[in-house]
Design brief:
Length: 338
């Protein structure tokens, strides 16, 4: 079994210096660090994570808190996870996924056990109980999302205003004047203050008014069946709609299927544009969806970096808003001639 003594001899340094590096207890020069890490690689040395945590009182593990019982896992969520894990690995941290609820109860129990150094919060509510839990526990955290009060809170998020502006501008440029937003169900207590739903709808109402468009918003829960139901209501109540924007990616999949079943051609009769979706999800429909591509890879990395900067005592990462980008597919086209 390779020991720290073996590594020290190979690198030409003291055992204490190797310990300083492994336990992050004292600074080591870049040149010395390089020699030690090369010696570890040559000898096949593996760090003892438990011993390191005991010595430094840090685990070098961070958690991503995702309320999986309330929010489905899709390709977009997976992009957040994978980019966050990659960003953590590059900084010598490990990222674990905590599928805990939004009420903060499970989070209280977990952070109290000292299992992680910090937490990245996802699917943030405007009034999120998890923030209070982490503040009271003194646990460092960063948010991918925004609460209504942000003073002193490290956060990154989707720029919903810019995303909606770009989406409406694109459809308006194609000639659409009868648009409908399929938003989340804000009457559901679980989602009444859910940031993406609230901010997307508020942005749409503002932008539609600026373009002089009739503001039509229909609510839908986040399932494919709900998307089909929303299209049935759309065709029944607003038959002159020529384009729909949809917040939830699962509802968007159901919307395309629902329109086909209702005899509406996509995009010849009606265009469909999801506001937040990953390309892999868009490819599941026929025709392939045009999308506003969610910035999951960027935000997963930024949210993790924001937390690690806190843990390392570095300068804080400034709050950043990243818009979704238009990826034209096959579900948007000029409206049918009247």
């Amino acid at each position: 079994m390779v020991t720290m003594k073996d590594v020290a001899q190979r690198a030409g340094v003291s055992i204490a210096t190797v310990s300083f590096l492994l336990n992050d207890t004292k600074p080591v020069t870049a040149a010395t660090r390089a020699r030690i890490e090369q010696a570890m690689a040559d000898l096949g040395y593996r760090r003892n994570v438990v011993a390191r945590a005991l010595a430094s009182r840090r685990t070098h593990i961070i958690a991503m808190a995702y309320p999986a019982l309330d929010h489905k896992f899709g390709f977009s969520a997976a992009e957040f996870f994978t980019s966050a894990a990659d960003a953590a690995r590059k900084q010598d941290y490990h990222l674990v996924l905590w599928p805990v609820g939004n009420d903060g109860t499970e989070l209280t129990e977990l952070v109290g056990q000292g299992l992680v150094d910090g937490v990245v919060l996802m699917e943030v509510q405007l009034d999120d109980p998890r923030v209070t839990v982490l503040q009271q526990a003194g646990t460092p955290f960063a948010m991918i999302g925004r609460t209504s009060t942000l003073e002193g809170l490290s956060h990154v998020d989707i720029d919903f205003d810019r995303t909606v502006e770009d989406a409406v501008e694109y459809l308006y440029g194609l000639g659409h004047r009868r648009l409908t937003l399929i938003s989340g169900n804000l009457n559901d207590p679980l989602f009444s203050t859910y940031g993406p739903y609230v901010r997307s709808e508020a942005a749409y109402r503002r932008v539609a008014a600026e373009y002089g468009l009739e503001t039509v918003v229909l609510e839908s829960s986040g399932s494919t069946m709900a998307g089909q139901d929303a299209m049935a209501r759309l065709v029944r109540e607003y038959p002159d709609t020529t384009a729909v924007l949809i917040v939830n990616e699962f509802a968007a999949l159901g919307a395309v299927a629902g329109l086909h079943r209702l005899g509406r051609r996509v995009p010849e009769d009606i265009s469909v544009l999801p506001l937040l979706m990953a390309p892999e999800m868009a490819a599941l429909t026929n025709p392939e969806l045009s999308i506003m591509r969610t910035p999951g890879p960027e935000l997963g990395q930024l949210g993790t970096e924001a937390l690690i900067r806190q843990l390392e005592g570095a300068d804080p990462l400034p709050p950043q808003l990243v818009p979704a980008k238009l990826h034209p597919g096959a579900t948007t086209a000029p409206p049918p001639a009247t």
